[in-house]
């Protein structure tokens, strides 16, 4: 198996809205995540035609309001990351902490100061910050008053926001990502595009208009970052679900190909290659659309072409199966449902566990683009039990070990793999369900689904295991 390079970026990943808390502290405005109720029905509520972004604390619990109070604990949390030996830490910046409503002309200084402290704390431990500019938490005002990313005005607001971050932090931060899991909008426009049924999320024209606006905004961010720091690295970030045909029926094989083009590749094709892919007309025709139906300004195509991303960041949790010829059993996944694969086990939340699929994903992405790839999310959501002698999460260790084995194999295949930041390196609020009980971390946080508990941090068995993996450069796992 391939040996991990000496400069490989071992680390972990989190998102501002899922762990910071302090949701209205020091000038922070409300984000869309602050209006998302907690619980297993979260996504069905958000997709309901009655949902209108109203926060009703008598009816719902809002766990994102408090997260794990990282806002007041980040120094001790980053110290624990350093103890594990992190080479990098992927985190996001809350847009509404910098621009509370999103359309202001000047940033909130208190928000900038907070992230400056976070970045400086990372650097004091020689941890490389990897910053996601927008991670499922756009300002609520932009979603309510502007209708989310379908509105072209958001390009300018995002450009102003990204520029504020670059001007303040780019001398200290080399690695950036523009949008988290941008392609998730194919299943849930609410998270990455800030659109709900009442503001047009079910209209596919709005979906593709929002994509186009995000593509332009991302390219403008790449342009600005490169102008301010020539060696800056700005990546895109997608969900990747390695996809198999259920059988060798050519009909299923074709549907698998077409589905992969749409979900796995469409967004990255534009952001990496700088132009709409050859299958765009066929894809839009599926929804009775064409590019002519979208608001595209004259300079947009040159902006996309001249400002492509430097690397491909992606999340990998599961694979998917396609069968349009039979009715097969389905199982849950990362923001989607898929057909159950009889060769795979599933997590407690029904996500299919497929480490070999990660090796396939790495090969597919690198062969397609010939640009560095970065596994910026991967992990096992599970219920952890606190025993008298600790938290023995051997299931998580087994999961991560198998996926690290897969990455090692991909390196042997010749893949240029930048790093690995497992998701939720410290327990946080689940994006899909708003639960704390769905835990991913190496560090346990004593809070329940209602936000009750001490918030004390405890090391799981996976903490010392990952510490040894990093110390050995991935050799001991």
Shape: globular
Radius of gyration: 21 Å
* Low-confidence sequence ranges: none
Separation, N- and C-terminal Cα atoms: 13 Å
Strand content: 5-15%
Mean pLDDT: 95
Helix proportion range: 25-40%
Give a short account of the largest sheet. Answer: 8 strands, parallel, barrel
Put simply, the count of helices is 15
Q: Please list the strands of the largest sheet in the order they lie side by side.
A: 1-2-3-4-5-7-13-14
Q: How many β-strand runs?
A: 16
Structural class based on helices, strands and sheet pairing: alpha/beta
How would you describe the overall organization of this protein?
By secondary structure, the protein is an alpha/beta fold. Helix content is 38%, strand content 14%. It has an eight-stranded parallel beta barrel with strand order 1-2-3-4-5-7-13-14, surrounded by five helices. A two-stranded parallel sheet has the order 6-8. It is globular.
Entry summary:
The chain has 477 residues and is α/β, with parallel strands linked by helices. The protein has 15 helices and 16 strands. Helices cover 38% and strands 14% of the residues.
Question: How are the elements arranged and paired?
Answer:
Elements: E1 9-13, H1 16-19, H2 42-46, H3 70-84, E2 88-92, H4 95-98, H5 109-124, E3 128-134, H6 140-145, H7 153-169, E4 175-179, H8 189-193, H9 204-228, E5 233-239, E6 242-245, H10 250-273, H11 280-286, H12 300-306, E7 311-315, E8 319-322, E9 330-332, E10 337-339, E11 345-346, E12 352-353, H13 355-369, E13 373-377, H14 394-412, E14 417-420, E15 443-445, E16 457-459, H15 461-471
Parallel strand pairs: 1-2, 1-14, 2-3, 3-4, 4-5, 5-7, 6-8, 7-13, 13-14
Antiparallel strand pairs: 9-10, 11-12, 15-16
């Amino acid at each position: 198996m391939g040996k991990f390079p000496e400069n490989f970026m071992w680390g972990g990943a989190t998102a501002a809205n899922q762990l910071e808390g302090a949701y209205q502290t020091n000038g922070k405005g409300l984000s869309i995540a602050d209006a998302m109720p907690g619980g297993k029905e979260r996504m069905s509520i958000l997709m309901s035609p009655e949902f209108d972004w109203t926060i009703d604390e008598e009816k719902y619990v809002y766990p994102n309001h408090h997260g794990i109070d990282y806002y007041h604990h980040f120094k001790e949390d980053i110290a624990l990351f350093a103890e594990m030996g992190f080479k990098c830490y992927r985190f996001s910046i809350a847009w509404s902490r910098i621009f509370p409503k999103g359309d202001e002309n000047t940033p909130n200084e208190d928000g900038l100061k907070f992230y400056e402290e976070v970045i400086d704390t990372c650097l004091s431990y020689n941890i490389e910050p990897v910053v996601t500019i927008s991670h499922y938490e756009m300002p609520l005002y932009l979603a309510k008053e502007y209708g989310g990313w379908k509105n072209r005005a958001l390009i300018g607001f995002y450009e102003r926001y990204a520029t504020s971050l670059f001007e303040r932090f780019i001398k200290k931060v080399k690695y950036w990502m523009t949008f988290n899991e941008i392609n998730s909008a194919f299943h849930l426009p609410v998270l990455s595009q800030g659109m709900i049924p009442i503001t047009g999320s079910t209209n596919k024209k709005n979906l593709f208009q929002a994509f186009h606006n995000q593509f332009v905004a991302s390219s403008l961010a790449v342009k600005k970052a490169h102008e301010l720091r020539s060696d800056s690295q700005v990546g895109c970030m997608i969900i990747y679900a390695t996809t198999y045909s259920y059988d060798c029926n050519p009909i299923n094989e074709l549907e698998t190909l077409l589905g992969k083009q749409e979900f796995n590749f469409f967004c990255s094709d534009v952001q990496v290659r700088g132009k709409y892919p050859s299958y765009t007309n066929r894809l839009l025709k599926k929804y009775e659309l064409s590019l002519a139906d979208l608001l595209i300004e004259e300079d947009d195509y040159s902006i996309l072409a001249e400002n492509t991303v430097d690397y491909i960041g992606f999340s990998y949790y599961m694979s998917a199966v396609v069968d349009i010829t039979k009715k097969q059993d389905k199982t849950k996944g990362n923001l989607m449902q898929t057909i159950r694969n009889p060769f795979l086990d599933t997590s407690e939340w029904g996500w299919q566990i497929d480490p070999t699929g990660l090796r396939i994903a790495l090969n597919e992405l690198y062969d397609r683009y010939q640009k560095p790839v970065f596994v910026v999310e991967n992990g096992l959501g599970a219920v952890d039990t606190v025993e008298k002698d600790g938290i023995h999460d051997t299931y998580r260790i087994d999961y991560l070990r198998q996926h690290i084995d897969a990455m090692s194999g991909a390196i042997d295949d010749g893949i240029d793999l930048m790093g690995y930041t497992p998701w939720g390196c410290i327990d946080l609020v689940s994006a899909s369900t708003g639960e704390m009980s769905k835990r991913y971390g190496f560090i346990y946080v004593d809070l329940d689904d209602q936000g009750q508990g001490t918030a004390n941090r405890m090391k799981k068995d996976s903490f010392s295991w990952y510490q040894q993996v990093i110390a050995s450069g991935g050799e001991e796992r």
